[in-house]
Amino acid sequence: RGVQGHRLCPPRGAGSSLEPEERSMEPPAVPEEEEEEEGAVPLSMAPGPVGCQLFGYVGIEAVLDQMKIKTMKTGFEFNIMVVGQSGLGKSTMVNTLFKSKVSRKSSQPGQEERIPKTVQLQSITHVIEEKGVRMKLTVTDTPGFGDQINNENCWDPIIKYINEQYERYLREEILITRKRKIPDTRVHGCVYFVPPTGHWLRPLDLEFMRRLSKIVNVVPVIAKADTLTLEERAEFKQRIQENLKTHAISVYPQEDFDQDSEDRALNDRIREKIPFAVVGADQEHQVNGKRVLGRKTKWGIIEVENPAHCEFPLLQDLLIRSHLQDLKDITHNVHYESYRVRRLNESNQLG
Fold it and tell me: Region labeled Disordered — which residues (predicted)?
């Protein structure tokens, strides 16, 4: 009888071999039936996909502590790309997300900001640490995207860059003598900044997300949402959702990759809110005796981390607190796997 976790109860005639199946951290349910075998310790098994009942403490839960200790020692990598026209607050948003000066713009003070004639990709890597956990963060900016009169094929350099990172990882992976830990420069998430026009998605926005959503996790956001009223924001968000559905564009989190009903329920609530209407600010202000991140206007202070003012907290939760590992898993198991299969098929055909 198949069970989750390690098969501790061998089937009849199978001897005592251990065959690992799916890993499960869930505690075993209370069994309803008991089956005994001759010469074996009687263990109870519940009907359905649950593990055997343990008659003593094993210590399986300790693997979580082991994983935590190992992660804290080695750290982990997270690579994020921001795409959008100039002036939409991409650099400020990244600084607000990670509460540090990690953007391209803030790392190059004193340099005059010039709009490039073509799309140029610039990556900056920082190591940030919080409560003993180290993260190697790489932020890739795309200055020049959508800033020209003719924006035809302006997404090509971005697609080329993403595929180059997949190719770099693939070349390391197929070596006979591989590194113990392959450096991961693959883009785990792409935050796409939609201008706050209040109308519909532009053909440029639709074409970019249609092409990029097939090779990377795309998270659309409405930039500088404080320029819209609450009614305009709600209508604009609904129109964008209709645009995405009409053109069959699947942005993150994708419905096809929900693993169970619990994930589906959580991601459905997120999908109802996408695109997030966000406001970025990297300056603190005094509000009711507290220091808060926000934008100061003559009508008051827009608090970035206040859900009543904008949806920046939802974006931060999605990218960091709840779905960071899922972004990395989908990048590796879906997008990179598709690229790997395609490249290996091409190599076999050439051979």
Answer: 1-39
pTM as predicted: 0.80
Query: What CATH number labels 61-102+117-348?
Result: 3.40.50.300
Q: What tens digit of pLDDT does each residue of 233-255 get? A: 999 999 999 999 999 999 999 99
Angle between helices 156-173 and 203-212 in degrees, nearest 10: 10
Domain spans, the chain: 61-102+117-348
